[in-house]
Design brief:
The longest helix has 18 residues. The two termini are about 45 Å apart. The strands form three sheets. Strands 1-5-6-11-10-9-7-8 form an eight-stranded mixed β-sheet. A five-stranded mixed β-sheet has the order 13-12-14-15-16, with helices on both faces. The model has no long low-confidence stretch (mean pLDDT about 90). The protein is built from 15 helices and 16 strands. The protein has two domains: about 240 residues, 2-Layer Sandwich (BirA Bifunctional Protein, domain 2); about 90 residues, Rossmann fold, CATH 3.40.50.
């Protein structure tokens, strides 16, 4: 038997209604925040992620699914959504559209990492990307959109943590301070941290090794090295969040895992899905467009992993809407009555009514059992007498009450008794 590849997961019909609810909520939030959908290819040229995500990141060095196509080109399955959207923004000249350009996506992503709760090798993201505005109110609006999304899903068990990692000017000074601090400790740190020391010391703060975490806990904090402009920007972001009634905690240790971030970074964190508790994260990336060959266009966004959101909702007993069920099941007793049930069911479907009928030549009793398992709201049996009279009894499954209804009037009855 061929099994599903490690780190991937089937979404079965009895589970898909949860996904539909989460994705539908994402689209509702996108609509009220005036975000337009963008769809980018599931694979891109590898260079896009090397330049955009960062050659020293774990994503690029350890986790990407990269292969050579038949034309000898290095291709990578996208490990995250932002770089592809930024590439599309440049390639399609969207800088010439009215700014800010507000976009969203729901997309599969791929990373080769150890599968764990809510973290798979194929996963799905809902993301927002806003291009063109450098203003702190845009930061607050994007964070508020994420908060609104989580609230509409019914998720309460999260906390918002924010930080500023400054600009290139800030980080140049901060990196000097980090190197001075970490240099005496290098022999006691992991190989990854020792490698990052020269290439990107900021990423050492994000190390998950216990020994390294004890050392990084006392490292200098980026907030002490912000330039006046970045410090003022961060204060304004906090002011806008307070004006919106959004609670937050400043966490100076948030640096995010991708190189393109600058200034504001944020995470929504939960303790209900294990050690890897981030369910939504993002921030500003003002230098990404120029890094990819575009102009100087500021941008900010976030992404939320759908698998982790659904796991969190299940772990915190969030009530999902009931899965859809047929409004009526029409049972036939023989070939001719099954044909009539088939005709009525399909005429109802054309009018927007969810209807079902027998396709297994079951007995009437078995058909009723099947209708009950489907959760049909009404059932009707069509037999010889019903064929002669042109009417049947619609049985409401919740209480057993019946309603004699002409075949031609079934749609009107169901429309008025949803």
């Amino acid at each position: 038997m061929i099994n599903v590849p490690k780190g991937t997961k089937d979404v079965l019909p009895e589970q898909s209604y949860k996904w539909q609810f989460v994705e539908g909520t994402a689209r509702e939030v996108a609509k009220v925040f005036n975000l337009k959908e963008i769809r980018t290819p599931v694979f891109e040229h590898t260079e896009l992620f090397q330049r955009g995500v960062g050659e020293t990141t774990d994503v690029v060095t350890k986790e990407m699914y990269t292969f050579e196509d038949k034309g000898g080109r290095s291709i990578t399955l996208k490990p995250e959504g932002t770089a592809g959207v930024a590439r599309s923004f440049i390639e399609n000249g969207l800088v010439n559209s009215p700014l800010p350009l507000k976009s969203f996506y729901i997309t599969p992503c791929y990373r080769y990492e150890r599968p764990q709760a809510g973290r798979l090798r194929e996963f799905h993201q809902f993301g927002i990307e806003v291009f063109g505005s450098p203003e702190p109110d845009t930061d607050a609006e994007v964070i508020f959109a994420a908060s609104t999304f989580l609230d509409k899903l019914g998720i309460k068990d999260t906390r918002l943590e924010i930080n500023s990692i400054g600009c290139k000017t800030c980080r140049a000074e901060y990196n000097k301070a980090l190197k001075e601090y970490f240099r005496p400790h290098l022999d006691n740190m992991c190989a990854t941290c020792r490698e990052r020391f020269d290439k990107n010391p900021l990423r050492m703060i994000d190390c998950k090794e216990e020994g390294c975490k004890k050392i990084t806990a006392k490292a200098p904090k980026i907030l002490d090295y912000l330039c006046p402009d970045c410090a003022a920007h961060f204060e304004k972001v906090k002011g806008y969040l307070s004006a919106l009634g959004v609670d937050y905690t400043v966490n100076p240790d948030i640096v995010r895992g991708l190189d393109y971030y600058s200034r504001t970074v944020f995470e929504f964190v939960s303790t209900s899905i294990g050690a890897q508790g981030t369910v939504c994260g993002g921030g500003r990336y003002d230098g990404l467009i120029s890094e990819l060959g575009g102009g100087n266009v500021p941008a900010i966004g976030f992404a939320a992993g759908l698998e982790r959101l659904i796991l969190l909702m299940e772990n915190t007993s969030v009530v999902f809407p009931e899965p859809s069920a047929p409004q009526i099941y029409l049972a036939g007793m023989d070939d001719s009555t099954r044909l009539k049930a088939f005709e009525i069911a399909n005429s109802l479907r054309l009018k927007g009514v969810s209807a079902e009928c027998d396709h297994m030549s079951r007995s009437v009793k078995a058909q009723f059992k099947y209708a009950d398992k489907l959760g049909a709201k009404y059932t009707a049996v069509i037999g010889e007498s019903e064929m002669q009279s042109g009417a049947c009894n619609l049985k409401r499954m919740s209480d057993g009450q019946t309603f004699l209804t002409a075949f031609a009037d079934i749609y009107g009855f169901l429309r008025d008794n949803k």
